[in-house]
Amino acid sequence: MRNISQLLAGSRPAPLQDIAIPTGLAVLFLGPHPDDFDAVGVTMRRLQAGGATLHVAVDRSGSGIEDSYCSPSTPEAKAAIREEEQRRSCRFFGLPDDRLIFLRLEEDDTAQLVDSPHNADLLRSLLASLRPGWIILPHGHDTNVGHQRMAAMVRRIAPEAGYPIAALFNRDPKTISLRPDIYTAFGEEDAQWKAQLLRFHNSQHQRNLNTRGHGFDKRILDTNRQIARELGLQAPYAEAFEVEIFGA
Q: Does residue 42 form part of some domain?
């Protein structure tokens, strides 16, 4: 077993099960949007089963909801829908209610968070209160500006924490490129569980059906299939992460 620092000095990519989980590890998932957590649900589930304490902090955003999905189609109504979807998915996952935090981040006129001093200060306060050893979040080399901005703020803020923090930047369908340092391989049983987790985000499921002709669950799992093929794994699915260590 290697610790996460040794990972970067050795052969990569490495399966998650070969990485030692420190006793008492706190893991913070930072979600620029509700549902980003669910995109790596199998990894988060295995970390929790391995003894890590999970915290999920999500921007309370209504981005990604079609106007036809809700009435009135106001930003607040959309944000309330997405908040409830995330609460339901996290309860299904088994995350205690007090480990899910909704951040009130400043957003632009498309309901995407902005890289601002206010938002950076909120993230600094969050890290100071939770002191996570690992932070997991979407990769910044991505077509989604919310992913880009959250990753940029973490890269600036994490080195200020005063102790080592490992950031695991995950791949999702909008990631342009990523160096796969860690992967979580999984089979059909876990895929069925993950599909159910993803479908709690019904607003996104319906939008994908309307715009792409397939559901949100298939969109994410197709990416997991592609990762497994690219890594040459026997397992049919995988979640992948690029690792950076700050303050080492």
A: yes
